[in-house]
Amino acid sequence: MSTVLDPEVAVVRPAARLRGTLRLPGDKSISHRALLFAALADGESRITAAGDGADVRSTAGIVRVLGATVERVRETGGTVDYRVVSPGVDGLAEPVGILDCGNSGTSLRLTAGVLAGLPMYAVLDGDASLRRRPVARIIAPLRTMGAVLHARRTDTLPPLTVVGRAPLRSVDYQTPVPSAQVKSSILLAALRAEGRTTVRESVGTRDHTERMLRARGIDVRREETSAGVAWSLEGGRRVQSVDERVPGDVSAAAFWLVGGAIHSDADLTLRDVGLNPSRRAIIDLLRAMGASIAGDAGVVDDGVGEPLADLTVHSSDLRGIDIGPREVAAAIDEIPILCLAASQASGTTRIRGAGELRHKESDRIAGIAAGLRALGADVDVDGDDITITGRQALRGATTDSLDDHRLAMTFAVAGLIAEGETVVSRPGSASISYPGFFADLEGVRA
Ligand code: S3P
């Protein structure tokens, strides 16, 4: 074993070569939504190859507490098949205890949207990291729709209480920050509103909710405006139960796309990677940096299902690029691993307007800068902008993951090319989104 893993630290040693074929965990965003839609639909829904990280398990737990039967039919490492049987939206039960979202902001914000339209009292809570995540951004629109929500610190931080009501009022709402979680929360509430609800976003964010609503019989309209994108739906509609096959998580694939590109002797294949246009920015950004990634030519997108393909990545000669707020929003979860790519690229990479990264599972701007600097990278932070001067040889050091899965995996991938031993603190957080990550890290060492 070249990686030593205990609950406190992982020690990663450099790999001579990277080879192999990986099957990634099921997409986390789609898995959360598939479970919530299964709870809203009457009867049985089957979900194949859902992500089996702790975050998706939190949503599965919530759906159970709300009164649906959630059965784990088959487990295969990073993925799980679920069979959900629900009494339907009007048969869901008021939770007796708190709804535990664990580390998962998506569980909290999307479930709040569902609860807003249910006449019951519920409390959403989670771990120490979740209790630092902003909730005012969902409280404002859901209150306008008629639900009663409160949170700690003058309605800004979890725990969050929701007293829902049916029917809700429809809204026409402009999201203050680009956020698929906020947009989805409102669209889920909109199903229980009278009239047409419109959510406007200045920058398009992931559209899984919209696609899944369409697949479940809801007419979701998309309109491009001078100010961005507007999504709308007519309330008072029921979602049909639909079986869902979840593609591999492109955000998990990103660790290997970067790992392969920055390693001097790499040839990796990633199976069934989700290539939804609103999620694939990381692939396009890496290509703009010169990464050798293939496999997605000819992939067809019908705007309802989720396109996918096998991707291959080879060692690449990367160069720095400029990344603006629009690309940051489109690759929001991949910015940490992209910073590692930038540290190995020729020239300078500038990432502007990355402030939302400070409100994730940790302050990811501070965390990535500290960890990459410890390894010898040249990282400069100015407010919400990050500048990385590349081609710095990394040398093993101790990095702090801040108990954040995406930082833990970024520093572990850095360890594959850094000289000596790279120590990653609290590596177990990888299992939030990618339970098999460290096994795959071992597997790809030729
Ligand atoms: C997610 C949206 C993003 C992302 C998160 C998952 C989703 O959050 O960071 O990991 O599934 O909708 P925001 O929409 O709050 O930026």
Short descriptors:
UDP-n-acetylglucosamine1-carboxyvinyl-transferase, Chain, binds shikimate-3-phosphate, 4-stranded mixed beta sheet, 30% helix, 446 residues, alpha/beta, 2 domains, 14 helices
| SSE class | alpha/beta
Q: Given the C-alpha coordinates, what overall shape results?
A: globular
Q: Roughly what fraction of the amino acids lie in strands?
A: 25-35%
> What does the oligomeric state look like here?
single chain
Instruction: Count all strands and give the number.
Output: 26
Number of helices: 14
Hetero groups in this structure are: shikimate-3-phosphate
Low-pLDDT sequence parts: none
Major sheet summary line: 4 strands, mixed
CATH class of the largest domain: Alpha Beta
Tell me the Rg in angstroms.
21 Å
What's the architecture of the largest domain, going by CATH?
Alpha-beta prism
How many angstroms does the end-to-end distance come to?
12 Å
Mean pLDDT metric: 97
What does this structure look like?
The chain has helices at 28-40, 54-65, 105-116, 136-144, 152-155, 180-190, 208-215, 250-262, 281-288, 325-330, 335-343, 364-374, 405-415, 437-443; strands spanning 3-5, 9-12, 18-23, 42-51, 69-76, 79-87, 99-100, 121-125, 148-151, 157-163, 168-169, 172-174, 193-194, 196-201, 221-225, 228-234, 244-245, 266-274, 292-294, 308-314, 322-323, 348-351, 378-382, 385-389, 398-399, 422-425. With 446 residues, the protein is α/β, with parallel strands linked by helices. The protein has two domains: 3-25 and 247-443, UDP-n-acetylglucosamine1-carboxyvinyl-transferase, Chain; 28-235, Alpha-beta prism (UDP-n-acetylglucosamine1-carboxyvinyl-transferase, Chain). Helix 1 runs parallel beside helix 2 (54-65) and helix 3 packs parallel to helix 6. The protein binds shikimate-3-phosphate (S3P).
